[in-house]
């Protein structure tokens, strides 16, 4: 257990620093000069040089890289030369928004996926099972933003039941927060729910063909009872894996839904920063995402050992 | 035993979710504040947020749009018809040699940090343009020779040569008045003499302003003013329909207008702007270094059809890079009527038949909208244009603007009175040979008002005759608002969005 954790921590650190090099290099490889963007049209060469000096983008790349990386362990991202704000503050604001949106959506998605996926597996030869499969297939094909736009057209603009977009922090006005988060969560959760339903279905189907389940049936347990007592725990491992991957992907992948619903999340911040070639902000947001992903993996890895004693024994 | 473990896991997940919910207090986009404040507040939806609040160091129209008139003021201001009006200066005189302006300042003016506004601040602000600004706009103050403080309320500005453009520029961002003790953090905390102060700013989301108690002029109609920024036009109109915003300013999707036109609870204002949708041709490289090819393009394109197709007919056909609110405007639509036959003849004469060109289109709604029809009209006269998209602003600025690596492009030029910036500069990306207009422009700027207008008209006609650029149409300033909102500025004459008179019926 301790060795496993130590290996994970080392892997975490190595991955993190490989990622710093990758994102730093990538941001320098794409065309576009932040000084040029800041000055806009009509900028003279002298002004450009002055602005590059001020931004620090005229210094050697190695120096720029080490200045940035050396602040990371303490969580110092520096001040964005584009917004002239502390990047840590901006990310702290945005990451809360993204986490609320994504975690709520994933909870709702799981609440849809687990019962329906199991049902689809148990009744995979019957109409209801095929129907669930079909609907989930359709759900996977619909992009989140399209679901979002449809929801806005029907429930906000058409019926006027809910606000069309915007964000209010729950601490400020919970009622307003709740009314604004419903549509984006539904938009994200419907798609994620469909994806997860398919994984739950195939995981349960696989478990159902296992010997131990046949043995449980032979002992006199009903199909569903055998599945609930002996099968679901085993089926939960691949579902957990997929959920964790989707969770990490969604923190930034929710950006399109963020745009549709005008939600100030991390994805929108990243998109704006790339547009302005705000190098420091882009690098910082990406590193936060890398860290979140690695932390999720670490947690999931630990959860495996809780769920499955065999994995515990291996380590 | 097994069961309790399940419960424990479930409880942990719920707890984590609950914690992440309650831990959050930041990140508002201001929707609820606007709603609860009722009729003493106004929320305006805009597209294209400012990156920071310091227009002395960051270019673009977004910052002055939000702050000029509302937070910052100049000695003069430009009214809805493009005329110069007194603002912080009650009155001014011009010497006989047209080189010395003496401004008499309005008494009792204070900055939002409590400091009094005096002639020293005028000297400070104008000198700071030359020394402290990191902006291409600073060249507009090059003509200033010296600034003398005559008394607390009188200041004298000497120009190195007479200039008509200078006084107009004093009503634009370069003329904004600053307090020496208020310029430390302009990017986050603007300090001006205007009727509003910036209460909070969330990058990319919203600027909230509150009315000042001690404003020298006419108090604004609302106590709080919120500017909310949206990524696209549909989100702005959705927010208007669901009541989150009161006004959508400079609406970017005219195809959405019909649904509001039929609805009594909304009003639509269709004003003019400085935004010129310009089909630019690189005057320095083939094939557009030949004036005949450029003229052929002018004849080839049916600008009325472009306007109707791309922007639902909203906007103004002007025929030259000058909006009707400029004093030297004249209708030049007749110079190049739509005439494909003439275009073909010109191309044949220039030996440029079966021309193949690259058309670099920035990633902006207006550009995408006009590009398809422009390509098809060019095809009608035998010009085969291939569209190449360029991410705006980063890639477009790098490739087209800085490296001049393009043949044809399209851009919305939004700056007010930028005719000479663009065409009296051979190093500009359009590459117009300015030798014919250089002296004309200089003489016009130094002349009296009538001479200025006449001289500048000649400049415009020369540029048009040379087919330096094809101005497809003038961008409309479309505003959709709740029916009972009043005092909105219909035209966009300078960068400023002046909301000091906006209120409710």
UniProtKB/TrEMBL annotation, chain A:
GO biological process terms held by the UniProt record: transmembrane transport
Chain segments annotated as coiled-coil in the UniProt record: none
A Pfam family matched in the record: BPD_transp_1_N
Transmembrane region(s): 12-30, 99-122, 134-161, 181-200, 239-262, 282-307
Domain ABC transmembrane type-1, chain residue ranges per copy: 95-300
Keywords: Cell membrane, Membrane, Transmembrane, Transmembrane helix, Transport
Keyword Ligase: no
Family as reported in the entry's similarity comment: Belongs to the binding-protein-dependent transport system permease family.
Protein name listed in UniProt: ABC transporter permease
Native source organism of the sequence: Arthrobacter terrae
From TrEMBL, chain B:
Keywords recorded for this protein, A-Z: Signal
Stored InterPro entries: Peptide/Ni-bd (IPR030678), SBP_5 (IPR039424), SBP_5_dom (IPR000914)
Gene3D superfamilies xrefs: Dipeptide-binding Protein, Domain 1, Dipeptide-binding Protein, Domain 3, Periplasmic binding protein-like II
Residues annotated as signal peptide: 1-25
Record-level GO cellular component terms: ATP-binding cassette (ABC) transporter complex; periplasmic space
Domain Solute-binding protein family, residue spans: 84-411
Keyword Signal: yes
Keyword Signal recorded: yes
PROSITE patterns, per database record: PROKAR_LIPOPROTEIN
Pfam family, one: SBP_bac_5
Annotated protein name in UniProt: ABC transporter substrate-binding protein
């Amino acid at each position: 257990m301790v060795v496993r954790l130590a290996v994970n921590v080392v892997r975490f650190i190595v991955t993190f620093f490989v990622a710093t090099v990758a994102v730093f290099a990538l941001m320098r490889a794409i065309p576009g000069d932040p000084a040029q963007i800041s000055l806009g049209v009509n900028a003279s060469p002298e002004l450009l040089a002055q602005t590059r000096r001020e931004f620090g983008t005229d210094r050697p790349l190695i120096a720029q890289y080490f200045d940035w990386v050396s602040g990371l362990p303490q969580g110092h991202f520096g001040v964005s030369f584009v917004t002239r704000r502390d990047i840590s503050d901006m990310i702290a604001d945005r990451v809360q928004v993204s986490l609320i949106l994504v975690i709520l959506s994933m909870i709702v998605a799981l609440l849809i996926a687990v019962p329906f996926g199991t049902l689809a597996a148990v009744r995979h030869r019957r109409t209801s099972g095929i129907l669930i499969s079909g609907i989930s297939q359709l759900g996977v094909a619909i992009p989140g933003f399209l679901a979002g736009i449809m929801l806005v057209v029907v429930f906000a603009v058409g019926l006027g039941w809910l606000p069309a977009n915007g964000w209010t922090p729950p601490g400020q006005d919970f009622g307003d927060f709740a009314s604004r988060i419903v549509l984006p969560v539904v938009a994200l959760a419907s798609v994620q729910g469909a994806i997860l339903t398919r994984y739950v279905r195939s995981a349960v189907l696989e478990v159902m063909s296992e010997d131990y389940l046949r043995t449980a049936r032979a002992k006199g347990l009903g199909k569903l009872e055998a599945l609930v007592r002996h099968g679901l725990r085993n089926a939960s491992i691949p579902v957990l894996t997929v959920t964790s991957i989707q969770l990490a992907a969604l923190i930034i992948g929710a950006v399109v839904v963020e745009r549709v619903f005008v939600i100030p999340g991390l994805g929108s911040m990243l998109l704006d920063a790339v547009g302005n070639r705000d190098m420091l902000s882009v690098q910082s947001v990406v590193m936060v995402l890398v860290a979140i992903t690695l932390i999720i993996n670490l947690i999931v890895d630990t959860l495996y050992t809780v769920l499955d004693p065999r994995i515990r024994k291996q380590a | 035993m097994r069961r309790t473990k399940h419960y424990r896991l479930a409880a942990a997940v719920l707890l984590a979710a609950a914690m992440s919910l309650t831990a959050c207090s930041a990140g508002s986009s201001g929707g609820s504040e606007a709603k609860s404040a009722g009729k003493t507040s106004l929320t305006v939806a805009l597209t294209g947020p400012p990156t920071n609040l310091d227009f002395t160091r960051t270019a673009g129209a977004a910052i002055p749009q939000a702050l000029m008139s509302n937070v910052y003021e100049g000695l003069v201001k430009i009214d809805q018809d493009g005329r110069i009006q007194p603002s912080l200066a009650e009155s001014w005189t011009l010497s006989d040699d047209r080189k010395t302006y003496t401004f008499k300042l309005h008494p009792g003016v204070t900055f939002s940090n409590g400091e009094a506004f005096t002639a020293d601040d005028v000297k400070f602000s104008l000198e700071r343009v030359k020394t402290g600004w990191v902006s291409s706009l600073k060249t507009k103050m090059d003509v200033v020779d010296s600034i003398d403080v005559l008394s607390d309320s009188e200041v004298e500005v000497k120009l190195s040569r007479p200039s008509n453009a200078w006084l107009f520029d004093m009503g634009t961002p370069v003329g904004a008045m600053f307090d020496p003790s208020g310029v430390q953090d302009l990017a986050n905390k603007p300090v001006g003499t205007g009727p509003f102060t910036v209460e909070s700013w969330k990058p990319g989301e919203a600027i909230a302003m509150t009315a000042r108690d001690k404003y020298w002029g006419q108090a604004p109609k609302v106590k709080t003013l919120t500017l909310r920024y949206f990524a696209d036009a549909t989100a702005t109109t959705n927010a208007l329909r669901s009541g989150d915003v009161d006004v959508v300013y400079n609406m970017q999707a005219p195809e959405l207008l019909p649904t509001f036109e039929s609805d009594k609870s909304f009003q639509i204002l269709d004003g003019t702007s400085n935004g010129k949708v310009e089909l630019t041709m690189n005057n320095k490289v083939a094939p557009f270094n030949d004036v005949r090819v450029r003229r052929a393009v002018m004849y080839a394109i049916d600008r009325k059809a472009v306007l109707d197709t791309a922007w639902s007919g909203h906007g103004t056909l002007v025929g030259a890079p000058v909006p009707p609110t400029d004093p030297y405007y004249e209708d030049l639509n007749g110079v190049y009527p739509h005439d494909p036959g003439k275009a073909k003849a010109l191309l044949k004469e220039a030996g440029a038949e079966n021309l193949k060109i690259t058309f670099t289109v920035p990633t902006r709604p207006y550009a995408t909208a006009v590009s398809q029809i422009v390509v098809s009209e060019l095809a009608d006269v035998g010009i085969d244009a291939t569209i190449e998209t360029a991410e705006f602003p980063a890639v477009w600025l790098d490739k087209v603007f800085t490296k001049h690596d393009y043949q044809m492009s399209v851009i919305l030029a939004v700056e007010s009175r930028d005719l000479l910036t663009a065409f009296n500069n051979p190093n500009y990306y359009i590459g117009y040979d300015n030798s014919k207009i250089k002296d004309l422009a200089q003489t016009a700027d130094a002349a009296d008002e009538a001479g200025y207008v006449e001289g500048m008209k000649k400049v415009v006609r020369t540029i048009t005759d040379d087919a330096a650029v094809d101005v497809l149409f003038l961008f409309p300033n479309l505003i959709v608002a709740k029916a009972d909102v009043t005092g909105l500025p219909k035209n966009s004459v300078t960068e400023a969005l002046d909301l000091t008179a906006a209120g409710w019926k």
